Amino acid sequence: MSAVSDAEAARRGKSGLFSLAKTAPWFIAAVLLICLPLVFNSGAGFTVMNQMAITIIFALAYNMLLGQGGMLSFGHAVYMGLGGFFCVHLMNMVEYDGLMLPLPLLPLFGGLFGLLFAFIIGSFSTRRAGTVFAMISLGVGELIASLSIIVVAFFGGEEGVSGDRTMGPEVAGFDFAQQSEVYYLTAAWLFISALAMFLYSRTPIGRISNAVRDNEERAEFLGYSQRYVRWISFCASGFFAGIAGGLFAINFEILTEENLNLATSGSILLITFLGGVGFFLGPVIGAIVFTLLQTVLSLYTEIWALYVGLLFVLTVMFFPSGLAGVIAIHVRPWQLGKIGLLAAPYLKMIVPAALFVFSCAAVLEILFHARHAALGEEEMWLYGLTINSQGVWPLTIAIAIAVVSLIILKRLAPSLKEAWDEANHQETGS
Amino acid sequence: MRKLTGLLLGVAIAGLTATASFAADTIKFAFIDPLSGPFAATGQQGLSQYKFAADELVNKKGGVLGKEFEIVAFDNKISPKESLIQLQVAIDQGIRFIVQGNSSGVANALTDAIKKHNKRNPDARVLFLNYSAVDPALTNDKCNFWHFRFDANADIKMDALTDIIAANDDIKKVYLIGQDYSFGKAVAAAAVKMLGEKRPDIEIVGNELHPIGRVKDFTPYARKIMSSGADAMITGNWGADMVGLGKSVIAAGYDNPIYTYYAAADGITKTFGADGKGKVKLVGEGQLNPPPNDRADAYAKAFKAKYPDTDIGQPRIANVMEMLAKAIDQAGSDTDMVAIGKALEGMEHDSLWGTKVFMRPDDHQVIQNVHILAHTDDGVSHDFDNSGYGLVVESTVEMASADAPTTCKMDRPE
Amino acid sequence: MSLLAVNLLDGLVTGLLLFMLCSGLTLIFSMMGVLNFAHASFYMLGAYFAYQISTYVGFWPGLIIAPVAVGIAGALIERYGLRRVHQYGHVPELIFTFGLALLIEEVVQFFWGKSHMAYYEPEVFKFAAFSIAGNAFPAYKVFMIFVAIAIFLVLLYILTRTRVGLIIQAALSYPATVQNLGHNVPLVFMGVFGVGTAMAGLAGVIAGPVLGTFPGMAVVLGSIVFVTIVIGGLGSLWGALIASLLIGWMQTFAASYNVTMADILMAVGIDKPVDLSDNALRDLWTLTLPQIGPILPYLLMVLVLVIRPRGLLGKRET
């Protein structure tokens, strides 16, 4: 899937780097980044958007390994975390030692620190690909996360290291006390980093990284050392992860062991895969969806992690090319001008599909409430209704809706299949 | 997919911008603690107690300033980063009181963030009511006007504990073991210092830290404790590390007191069961057995009737609610955080649990009676984990550490 | 000296327990090429199932029923989940098991909540089998040793003396050829996955009462299991046994002896700074062996991978 889309991009790349079709998405992205605060202007809105932007950079950096280089890492949080810790220490040097470092440049130093560590670790971990690389990354990740508790001087132990971003010299009248100012700083870095990573993937070294991923022996025969190619990709990825770490330091003003541990490394793997590793935009989508699930869904339900786990497992099972892959399969009907054919079956299915999802969630919520709520607290609030979780009827109704909507979906599936085939079919005559 | 994103964005807007519209009717407390993940049991237990205390002690008496207390739960997944996000969400919803207790790491992050927030946003200040995080630094070097601690801190507990140990001439050798992080180190340092002052003849036969949450099997540690010949051991361990350590030393044949900070409730009492009787002791505030008065007895019974699967593991939560109600009433406002903070400083309160509670103005550390509690099934009228076992007061240190020094230099707002 | 004997026994228990997990995992990995990240989650399921059964009918039926139930669950997951993902390649497979590990932890919390379960060893074992210099050695641990050794012998017998074992052994070395010979490889896969997870479940059943039954029990053990099979060499049962025992003893001895970095540094002639409070290397000076005990296996794994990527007794490189 990815090889095809990359080849496609390469073919079109010949038509000029600065064609309208290539630059338009970036303009749209820039306008979107500038305008978002007009909609989400609460403090929490900014916090969530900053968090999202940081996760996007980190996920894109991670995908330089997984998607473009075919290297599966279980310890990539280390490079983001180390970059972040370094930045907090720089922030404290600004505050206490009078270091004159303007805040907007801070992430760059985080990136360089991440690069340095990626260079060191990569020198032995990138010798081999596959499981050996994955297990070394796991081991190194675990070692550094454990060391962060032991080495209090640098990592601050389990309470971490905190700083104050407002102590540096003002830049154009901004002291970055407000979340909105931090947002624009983060957004600018997001734009620059994303563009840089995109352009990197189009350079010869980015291409060779794809070649090594697909067949390391052939790449070797072409005269490229697979090991150095992996090492370079690893360093580049470490650099951008470090930038994300620097932005994390600015946004949260604290770094802890959590920034380095395996859970964080694991979630970036989930995010990237959920979004789709074969597409440049995949990690972006994954980061947005995951951040929303994590911060917003957890406000509404206690068992949010169960839903995230389910979503993840189902994605791997049914859409291994991720959410971006779901979008990508619509590109061909779109190019054929037949996307309209899909509208009617989609519209027919959306109601039963939504019913199915919500009724399944209702079954889980009712069961969970019945099992874990306080005695006597039989009433629960679900989709605006107040129901009795101990009663038989709410559960029966929820299950009934789920079953009925599933049957309807099954009935509708053939017509969707038909429309799908038709929409993807190119008339040879025309 | 785009539809899904649109839907989620819609949910997000609803969640993030639905703010002050309903904020006026109640006084809201943001409960920011783990409600999912490995430490969720403690978080859930705290949440149940807050909800019960708010209803029973405040709302049933007509509330404060004509408003009721409402507890709004936020799941921080015990992560400092998530806590800061949830703090921001809570502030956006117009919530001005933040309660948190699990993990001193999170408390450190929150107190720092709240200090910065109050400095940067003087018109939307918030108070931090810490009911459980006991790292001494929070009321010493890291103290600030907005932070109030309702639990005895690690030093105070150790002060009380060493008083009891010092009075027991049978104890000649003490073994210290704890988790390798700030709290574990604070416990060990306080024990060494205070035992050295109170009973220089006691030999500390072991003083060690083990990696937090990573030890699968405590048997090797138990062997060391056994061969050291310790007459008593002291540990600040909590959660799975407490259970693992306790089970291993008992299985290895240890038959002396294990002085702990957190070896009760959330399944731990039930797990120790008969094995822990006569061995597991706990230093803490709050008295359930024997009930100090009829009111406390009735309160605990009513709680159990409503929440049969959880316990009053953190009795101080009742104090938090009662003292806040008083402070808001005295300040005559539920939005003027400076006035409420000043009303809370120096407040003396007669606790439900039969002790006086004094909020020391120098460092915002509560001073109260601290007990040594024994894990047993004799004379237990309020058990934990429905196991028949519970904590019975063995000895009491009145107003523990009332004149202990603090390094706090409180910076008070105008 | 007596402490040494006790530590050797304790390390043996830890090592054999680890082996019960690793033997299944290494079989699954060698055959299917998939590092099953959820393996420790099946161990957790075993403990919870057994706990639930023990509340109705006591410990002993659980010892049989729970591993079988876990094995069936494992086989079903292989049939309807993993086999589907298999066609996409190894990375999605690995990620699938990774997600499965998260999901199982959530499902366990969904049903049993977040507290510790009161799951105990049976009354008949509640005595000290013997004691060495005041250190009691519980009878239950003796039982654990025997169960683990029995499992190893049964496994060895199946692998070397039965027809199924021959096919599995062949598949360990030449998976493609075995398929070409017309064996029903998917069925063998499902069987191996089911048996492997059942063994993890059995480990959970007998370890639950000792190490605690709680939602974090899989995470605590989680990645150490991979570390062990990577060190031992993928696909080697003997390698898994040796690595398990090695790690069991390593962890036991690391926790038992308070060797400090200060001792080592002073022994080589470096003077300890008088004031450590502001020294950048203060953490190095206070470092002790028990502190770093749990990360030693990871260090060992990285070293093994860098020096000898096939592991101690591995037959082929990954």
List keywords for this structure.
heterotrimer, A: 430 residues, B: 414 residues, alpha/beta, 5-stranded parallel beta sheet, 19% strand
How does this structure look, described?
The complex is a heterotrimer of chains A (about 425), B (about 425) and C (about 325). In chain A, a hairpin with a 2-residue loop joins strand 3 and strand 4 (about 385-390). Chain A is built from 18 helices and 4 strands. Chain A has about 425 residues and is an all-alpha fold. Helix content of chain A is about 75%, strand content about 5%. Chain A is globular, with a radius of gyration of 24 Å. The two termini of chain A are about 25 Å apart. Chain B is of the alpha/beta class and about 425 residues long. Chain B has 2 domains: about 1-155 and about 310-365, Response regulator (Rossmann fold, 3-Layer(aba) Sandwich); about 155-290 and about 370-395, 3-Layer(aba) Sandwich (Rossmann fold). Helix content of chain B is about 40%, strand content about 20%. In chain B, strands 7-6-8-9-10-14-15 form a 7-stranded mixed sheet, with helices on both faces. Chain B has a 5-stranded parallel sheet with strand order 2-1-3-4-5, sandwiched between helices. In chain B, strand 8, helix 8 and strand 9 (about 260) form a beta-alpha-beta unit. In chain B, helix 5 (about 155-165) runs parallel beside helix 6 (about 180-200) and helix 7 (about 220-230) crosses helix 8 (about 240-250). The longest helix of chain B is centred in the first third of the chain and has 19 residues, at about 40-60. Residues about 1-25 of chain B have low confidence and may be disordered. Chain C starts with a helix and ends in an 11-residue tail after the last helix. In chain C, helix 1 (about 1-30) crosses helix 9, helix 1 (about 1-30) packs antiparallel against helix 10 and helix 2 crosses helix 9 (about 215-230). Chain C has a domain at about 1-220. Chain C has a two-stranded antiparallel sheet with strand order 1-2. In chain C, a hairpin with a 2-residue loop joins strand 1 (about 130) and strand 2. Chain C contains 14 helices and 2 strands, in the order ααααββαααααααααα. By secondary structure, chain C is mostly helical. Chains in contact: A-B, A-C, B-C. At the B-C interface, helix 2, strand 7, helix 7, helix 8 and helix 9 of B face helix 1, strand 2, helix 9, helix 10 and helix 13 of C.
